[in-house]
Amino acid sequence: MAGTLNCMTPACPSPDPSQAEQAALLGRLRQGEDAAFRDLMDMAGGRMLAVARRMLPTDDDAREAVQDALLSAFRNLHRFDGRALLTTWLHRITVNACLMKLRTRRRRPESSIEDLLPTFLPDGHQTRPAEPWAPDRLERAETSEATARLVREKIGELPETYREILLLRDIEDLSTEEAAQALGISSNAVKTKLHRARQALRALLDPHMRADGGEAC
Amino acid sequence: MLTCREVLDFLMAYVDGELPADEVARFEKHLAVCLSCVNYLASYRATIRAGKAAMRGPGTSLDKLPPDLVKAVEAARRALVQSGESE
Lengths: 217, 87
Ligand SMILES: [Zn+2]
What we know:
The complex is a heterodimer.
Chain A: H1 19-30, H2 34-55, H3 59-75, H4 86-105, H5 135-141, H6 145-157, H7 160-171, H8 176-183, H9 187-209
Helix pairs in contact in A: 1-2, 2-3, 2-4, 3-4, 7-9, 8-9
Chain B: H1 4-9, H2 11-15, H3 21-31, H4 35-56, H5 67-82
Bound molecules: zinc ion.
The site of zinc ion has 6 residues of chain B, from helix 1 and helix 4.
């Protein structure tokens, strides 16, 4: 399912709160019970902060975004229709708060992505044929902290709007339509940009992952 | 026969299972004879997996908010309630 705060890794510290738990908490929030908001922070706050840390450059920004998101949730509780899970709704609000923060932080014109996209000969072949990636490096990509750091660094090098799309679709698991709505662009634009973002990230990783040498990581 | 350029253009639709069956057949006919596109496809998929693993792997989630942040948010919420802005 797209977009919940589900943690996909076995190392995840706590399971998702059940639907029943979430419904009970929602009821208490709506009655204005004072302790309910603290329970909400207890239930979802850590995961909201993890999302914000993935999306924002500094820990201060992440904390501010989580505060904004929690207050926005508090103000807009009456608009939550209860069809989605509370955690899913909070995830969306957090992503939106992070996007707002990125908008206010954006300082320079975006670098071009063209240099990171594949190029072709007139006959349609790639100018430089793609080389295979080493199986052991692929293995490490999912297990080693050093490689994880490299991948995070390369994601950070993507032009800003492409990084956002990649985060929303591939990391936060928003659907194409949800990402389009969050960013105020068309679904087709989301698809095009996501494909380019993945291709650019692939190009940035390529020298480190190739079987024919490249740089070790 | 599709060109490599066309294959790479439609790669995401292929990976996401959004290509119609006849297009998939044309796509795979190209893959059967083009090692470069096979390599590219494998590394494209690996890129998606590596991104998820790096951003959502162990050590990237945390259980609870830091207590000082909880206090700050709680104080801001009370201020909201007192200013009557919450309704
Ligand atoms: Zn090809």
